[in-house]
Write a structure and sequence with these properties.
Helix content is 68%, strand content 0%. It is mainly α. The protein has one domain. The N and C termini lie far apart (30 Å).
């Protein structure tokens, strides 16, 4: 695996993801804040419907969300 460039170390991993993944993560987090009883799958389906996405399967989206959540918590721990 190639060595990470120095300037990339300054950018938290969560910001290196593509816009669609960040939008998914933000959508799910917002839905959980607005409706605490919503499940992750329900929020993901809502995102698919809102963004008119039909080529992204739920398992991949759930994995993407989980990875971004880990990156987000990793980033917020470093800021404390």
């Amino acid at each position: 695996m190639p060595k990470e460039k120095e300037f990339l170390k300054l950018i938290p991993k969560i910001y290196r993801k593509n816009a669609e993944c960040i939008m998914l993560f933000s959508w799910v987090k917002a839905q959980q804040q607005i409706v605490p009883t919503v499940t992750i799958d329900q929020a993901i389906w809502g995102f698919f419907k809102f963004a008119n996405i039909d080529d992204w399967d739920i398992e991949s989206a759930r994995t993407t969300y989980a990875r971004l959540q880990n990156d987000y918590y990793e980033t917020t721990k470093e800021d404390c």
